């Protein structure tokens, strides 16, 4: 990875992921988390203030050292233990069925092999465990999708490989999850092509 990817992108994402509707959506997606949680794409810890009291611990999976350093202030105020426990969401260093829940916020769009990451999350979740997610994804409207496909190459270069056109709900089903809740919408204040989100809860068999 180059200097831009290693040093600049984590700082840009740290700022961008704290703007607009992000806080409200993080609060919404974290609601209902409980027990031992694995969070992939922990980033700079924007979700930390929204962990419910029922969470007993978080295994944070984050490849960026810069992102982890930027999380320091939020970690100081964490109400639950947060451990940096892995670097790659595609290869989780945890035993089968050891976690009660998982969390992914705007992460599956950047993981190179998102299908592998979903299979790994399913593996480490207990039967009936839940994956709480909010992700950039394919827009519901064909006209917006056209713009997403046009903009995606630039988006990937500027934001660490971020895809705009992944069909999140379909990917979850293909990985063996059952969708208990799903909401596809456009973020308020964001261009539709960049702000098409899929938010919900998926259940592991």
Layout of secondary structure:
Elements: H1 3-16, H2 22-30, E1 35-40, E2 55-61, H3 65-70, H4 72-76, E3 82-86, E4 99-105, H5 114-124, E5 125-136, H6 142-158, H7 168-174, E6 178-186, E7 196-203
Parallel strand pairs: 1-2, 1-4, 2-3, 4-5
Antiparallel strand pairs: 5-7, 6-7
Question: What do these coordinates show?
Answer:
There is one protein chain. The protein has seven helices and seven strands, in the order ααββααββαβααββ. The protein has a seven-stranded mixed beta sheet, with helices on both faces. Pfam families: Methyltransf_11 (PF08241).
The termini sit apart by 37 Å
List the secondary-structure elements in sequence, H or E.
HHEEHHEEHEHHEE
- Cα gyration radius (Å): 16 Å
Number of E-type strands: 7
The number of domains: 1
Strand order of the largest sheet: 3-2-1-4-5-7-6
* Count of separate DSSP helical elements: 7
Shape: globular
User: Describe the biggest sheet?
Assistant: 7 strands, mixed
- CATH topology (fold) name: Rossmann fold
In terms of DSSP E residues, the strand content is: 25-35%
The portion of residues assigned to helices is: 25-40%
| CATH top-level class | Alpha Beta
Unreliable residue stretches? none
Question: CATH homologous superfamily?
Answer: Vaccinia Virus protein VP39
Give the name of the CATH architecture: 3-Layer(aba) Sandwich
Structural class: alpha/beta
Question: What is the average of the pLDDT values?
Answer: 93
Keywords: Methyltransferase, Transferase
GO molecular function, one term: S-adenosylmethionine-dependent methyltransferase activity
Protein name: Methyltransferase domain-containing protein
Domain Methyltransferase type: 38-132
């Amino acid at each position: 990875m180059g200097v831009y990817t290693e040093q600049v992108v984590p700082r840009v994402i740290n700022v961008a992921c704290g703007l607009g509707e992000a806080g409200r959506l993080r609060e919404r997606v974290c609601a209902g988390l409980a027990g031992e949680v694995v969070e992939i794409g922990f980033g700079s810890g924007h979700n930390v203030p929204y962990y419910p009291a029922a969470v007993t611990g978080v295994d944070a999976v984050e490849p960026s050292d810069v992102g982890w350093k930027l999380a320091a202030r939020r970690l100081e105020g964490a109400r639950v233990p947060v451990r940096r426990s892995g670097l790659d969401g595609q290869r989780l260093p945890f035993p089968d069925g050891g976690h009660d829940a998982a969390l992914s916020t705007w992460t599956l769009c950047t993981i190179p092999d998102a299908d592998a990451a979903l299979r790994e999350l399913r593996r480490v979740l207990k039967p009936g465990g839940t994956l709480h997610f909010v992700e950039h994804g394919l827009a519901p409207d064909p006209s917006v999708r056209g713009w997403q496909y046009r903009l995606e190459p630039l988006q990937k270069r500027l934001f660490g490989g971020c895809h705009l056109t992944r069909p999140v709900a379909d990917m979850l089903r293909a990985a063996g999850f059952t969708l208990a809740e799903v909401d596809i919408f456009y973020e308020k204040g964001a261009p539709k092509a960049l702000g098409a989100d899929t938010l919900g809860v998926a259940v592991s068999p």
